[in-house]
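Title: Prediction job returns without error message
Component: structure pipeline
Severity: low
Priority: P3
Assignee: unassigned

Description:
Job completed but the reporter wants confirmation the result is attached to the right record. Sequence as submitted:
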Amino acid sequence: MTQAYVERHSMTSATLGVRMRDGKADLLQGTLDLLILKALGNTPLHGWAISKRIQQTSRDVLSVNQGSLYPALYRLEDRGWIVGSEESSPEGRRIKVYRLTLAGQQQMTEAVQSWRVFSLAVNHVLRAT
């Protein structure tokens, strides 16, 4: 994706710690939760791996800072959408690995549907103006 493309497609909203890689745009409220749930949809991951998964699957457009990621992970745990367990990394360090719960899977499905409806509505507005 080119820098010009990213600049043309930047959006602005409340600060949530999810930024376009060019640093110019934050994403809408609730998007970070959806991105985390989606990243965990296929496999358990630790925090840094969640951040990297979001970056990779967004083709290096999105970046999640740790100051936003970990509070979001704790919030999702409190809601029962993910569960974390202490494990050892291949290097022998203690890490917390997060897994999606059944409630989290249901929330992710609902959030994806809501995002699609919202995105479609925004696209209609953009085409009309």
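Comment from assignee: result matches the submitted record. Residues 102-128 form the longest helix (27 residues).
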